[in-house]
Amino acid sequence: MKNLLSIEQLSADEIKDLLALGHQLKAERGQHTVLPLKGQTWALIFSKSSTRTRVSFEVGISELGGRPMFLSFHDIQLGRGEPIEDTARVLGRMIHGAAIRTYGQDEVENFAHYAQIPTINALTDEEHPCQILADLLTLEEVYGVGSWKDMKVAFIGDGDNNMSRSWMWAAKRLGFTLAIGAPDAYLPVEEYRKRIDCPNIIYTTDPIEAVKDATIINTDTWISMGQEDEKQTKELHFLPYQVNNELLSHAAKQHSVFHCLPAYRGKEITAEVLEAFAPVIFTEAENRLHAQKAVLTTLAQNRYS
Ligand code: CP
Ligand code: NVA
Fold first, then answer.
1. Domain membership of residue 29 as a residue range
2. For 47-58, how does the pLDDT look when each residue is reduced to its tens digit (9 = 90+)?
């Protein structure tokens, strides 16, 4: 593993290794004896807002001995139209790695190709791999290592966004059952379903069917970054897909609700449900730090191999 560009590009073993290292780094926080990023500078190039991703990368890079350099898209020449290929070739000669948050998956892939340094997808319109690794880490903390094997996970809301797609690839790689419950127009398109070709993913417009006997009930904002113009139409479609107590009455007995945050109370999740599951939801947020430290450590180790 030279980059983390998507869950799609990871193997099951790579995911399991990252989770094992994430648990270890979490247990050893504050006592790291090895600093794999010592003397290195890692850039965070962001064209979309962020709280969790930015802070967890800045803190994680520092805790591993490196120096984070935050570069807002608007403050560098990228924002004035300098091609990503040129930006990548410049940064590749100066820094040791990069985490990029942007729109197109091709931008992150091109950066990795031209910079020739370890590159991490810190969210694109296509995937949010760092979040899914943190979510799997959280799932294992609550239910046990490898417990996803016999589990049903539900994703309720926009079935065609970065979070649902990363969950889909995790289900494909690890083999757990994933049910996507979304309005017809927001289920993954046929072409994508064929590409993923995964018999353990259920696609349904019925939120109750999706949640039925699920242990993990996931949701995310109905309006992803960059889709603000679609707010009014989308909200009307999504109202029946709110994660509320009535919907949760169909879930498995020992269920947990996951939300990558930021959350919009009264929209995709009720305030009551969010607060009831706050311990696990904010653990997911904290686990961004530990999961990404595992990614950074692995990429730094593989850099010269
Ligand atoms: N979950 C997540 O990626 O949060 P931020 O947008 O705050 O980074
Ligand atoms: N799907 C959301 C995730 C935010 C962390 C978005 O892209 O805005």
1. 12-128+289-295
2. 999 999 999 999
